[in-house]
Amino acid sequence: MQHHALELDGVSKRFGNLVALDGVSFEVRPGELFGFVGSNGAGKTTAMRIVLGVLEADSGEVRFDGRPVTHETRTRIGYMPEERGLYPKMKVLDQLVYLAQLHGMSSNEAHQSAQTWISRLGLADRRGDEVQKLSLGNQQRVQLAAALVHNPDVLVLDEPFSGLDPIAVDVMSSVLREKAAAGVPVVFSSHQLDLVERLCDRVGIIRAGRIVACGAVAELTEGAATKITVTAPLAPPGWAAELSGVKVLSQEGDTTVVELAPGTDDQTVLKAALATGPVREFSRTHPSLAELFRNVVTDQQEAR
Question: Where does the ABC transporter domain start and stop, copy by copy (predicted)?
């Protein structure tokens, strides 16, 4: 099966005076996990609903395989809405079979696919239960199965990890990785930035309806300062204070944490530390996605 990119190009949407999306553009490539992050009300859900055709954009375009998304294309999207949309009184298996057939699968294919996902997601002993009787975590698993059961060409998942226990998070992560490895473009929004950082090839950060940063996490954090933790048991207090391009953030006992100005060579810090005696630890940490997110979002607010 040929896989294609999902593109948002200059998508804007207003609700009365509220600008929900302001010229949002990004691309989710085949086989890529793309994390879509932003505070509540930043526009993530609105963007996803426009991809799905639940909402219409005021301007801009959503394309799949280079062509505008149509009703036919939308049947090939696996969608997991943030406000979960399952039939509460329907049994798990029946519901998944029904949804698969709705997306054009034959009865036989639908049953096979439903059974596959039910066992994959650890729901085998719940297949005959009504959805409303399941725990929230299990309802979440059924909702993911509903997004996957018709073997979609694109996955669009709104907060798929919210309310999941750690084991279900692992199951969900491995399913998304597997889908991406098979060439499917996968976009999901999440508040769990450590998870996004671990899973995603690229991220887009949206703030007040605008994309304020987009790229691989390593690229986005590249310009930021690097922190280094140095443990040197014999180093005197203030040993790093005079080094150029180096700011001492803390010194507790024999451990010092410094921040390097962009372009400063970390080897100068190591040499200075070794000059004091043995070095037990020398580790650098790049800023996390959470730090980047805070910086980008607060910079933008201050700039207004």
Answer: 6-233
DSSP state of 33: E
Q: Which fold has domain 225-285?
A: Alpha-Beta Plaits (3.30.70)
CA dist 291 and 304 (Å) reads: 20
| Cβ atoms < 10 Å from Cβ of 252 | 7
Residues of the chain with CATH 3.40.50.300: 6-218
Task: Enter the CATH code of domain 6-218.
Answer: 3.40.50.300
Rg of the chain over Cα atoms, rounded to whole angstroms, equals 24
pLDDT digit string (tens) for the chain, length 304 residues: 566 899 999 999 999 999 999 999 999 999 999 999 998 888 999 999 999 888 999 999 999 988 998 888 888 899 998 777 788 999 999 999 999 999 999 999 999 999 999 999 999 999 999 999 998 889 989 999 999 999 999 999 999 998 888 888 998 899 999 999 999 999 999 988 989 999 999 999 999 999 999 999 888 877 677 889 999 999 998 899 889 899 999 989 899 999 888 778 889 999 999 999 999 999 988 778 888 888 777 765 544 4
Query: Could you tell me the pTM of the whole model?
Result: 0.80
